[in-house]
C-alpha cells in the first residue's frame, strides 16, 4: 500500500501550503505502477480506497473541522460522518484500474501506434470517470495548474478537464515508459504528452498577452467597496439561531465598518458584504428589532447614495420556502434578489430529508433551504450606467457549467459572496479561492469575491489576483473593476465538451 500512499502525498503537494504544481505530471505514477495484468479485484479496490482515503485526509482534512463547527457535533461524531466521504470521494481511483488491467490483458505487447492511441483513450476515460460521478468538491487534476500562470489559461478551451487530461496522459506516458522494455518507442507517449503540454502553454502565453492588452485598453471602471468583518462562527451561529443581541451586534459591525471605509473611499460605486452577512431573513418581520435592523441597511445605502449588495436568507410567501440569497439594495430602497441554485450537499440540503425529517432534527443548526429556479442577473446602477452582474453564492463558483450558464446571460462581472469561517484558519479558504479563480479564466470575466473571514479579492479575466485579503482579519478594500465587452472563449460556447 506504500505506492498509493506515495501518490496521495504527491497529489496533495499542489495544494497549500506547498503548491508544487509540477508534481501533478508524476503524482499518479507510483499508484499506476502498483497494478499489472494479474492484479486481483480485491487488490485494485484496496489500493483505490487507500489512495482516496490518504488523499482525502491530507487535502480535505478541514472537512472534519467544518462538520464539527457547522453542525455542532462532537469530534467523534464528525469523524464518523466524514469517514465514508474520505473513502469514496474519488470514485475514479476505484474504477479506472479495472480498465487499465483490461487494457494490459488485451495488449501485453502493443505496437507503438497502438500504445499511443491506447494511452490517449485511457487518459480520456480517466477524465470522463473523474467528471461523470458526483464529487462533493468537484476537484480534478486540473486544479493543480492554478500555479501555472500560462498553462491555466487553457481552461478557457474546455474547462478544468482539459488540463486534467493533459496531466493524466503525462502520468500514463511515464508509467508506460518505466514498465516498458526500455525501447525508444516506449517513450513516444511521453513525447506526445510534452507536445500537448507545450502547445497548451504557448496558447496560454499568447492568450494572456492578448487579455492583458484588452485590460490595459479598458476605460470603464467601477469601484467596489468590499467589507470583510471576520465574524467568528460561534457568533454567527448564535445570530442565525435567533439571538437578538448577536444579530444586532453583527449588523452594527458591518454598518460601522462600511461607514468608516466610505470616509476614505468616497468614489465607491457600491458596497459589498459577504454571504449571510445579514443574519436571519431580510424583511422577515414587520416591526420591533427586525424593522430597526433592516432600516440600518436602508439608511446606509440612502445616505451613501450607492447600492448595498449583501447576503441573507429570503423567505418566499405563502410557500414559506427559505433561500440562501443575494440582495441588491438601491438607495431608493428598491430591491433585487438572487436565490442560490446549487446547494451544498449536507450543508444546505440533505438527500431524503423530505421523507426522513429526523435526519435534519439531528443537526441543531441545519436549515432546510430550497434551490433557486435558475441563474439570473442583477442590474447594478452606477455612474457609468447599468452594469449587469452575474451573482454566485459560495459553492456555486466552483460548479463550472453553472458558472458558464449564468455568465451566458450577459453579465459583465461575477459577484461571488462566500463564507469560509466555519473552517477556521485551515487551508479550506485557499483551496476554495483557487477553485474560484478558474471561474474568471473560463468565462474571461472579472470577479469580485467577498467573504466573511477571507479570502476576498478582485480576480481579473486573466486569473491574476488584485489585493487579496488575509484570513481571519477585518478588512475593507476598494477594488477598481474593469468592465469590458465579453471576451469569447471556446468554453463559453461549447461548455465542458471533453466529457460530453
Describe this structure in words.
This protein has helices at 2-12, 29-33, 41-59, 62-70, 75-88, 91-106, 112-132, 155-158, 160-179, 188-217, 233-240, 244-264, 288-304, 358-361, 400-407, 428-443, 490-494, and strands spanning 221-228, 270-272, 308-316, 321-329, 335-339, 378-382, 385-393, 413-418, 447-451, 457-459, 465-466, 475-482. The protein is globular, with a radius of gyration of 24 Å. It is of the alpha/beta class. The protein has two domains: 2-213; 220-483, 4-Layer Sandwich (Nitrilase/N-carbamoyl-D-aminoacid amidohydrolase), CATH 3.60.110.10. The model has no long low-confidence stretch (mean pLDDT 90). Strand 8, helix 16 (428-443) and strand 9 form a beta-alpha-beta unit. The protein starts with a helix and ends in a 6-residue tail after the last helix. A six-stranded mixed beta sheet has the order 5-4-3-2-1-12, sandwiched between helices. It has a six-stranded mixed beta sheet with strand order 6-7-8-9-10-11. The chain has 17 helices and twelve strands. The longest helix has 30 residues, at 188-217. Helix 1 runs parallel beside helix 3, helix 3 (41-59) crosses helix 5 (75-88) and helix 9 (160-179) runs antiparallel to helix 10 (188-217). 46% of the residues lie in helices and 14% in strands.
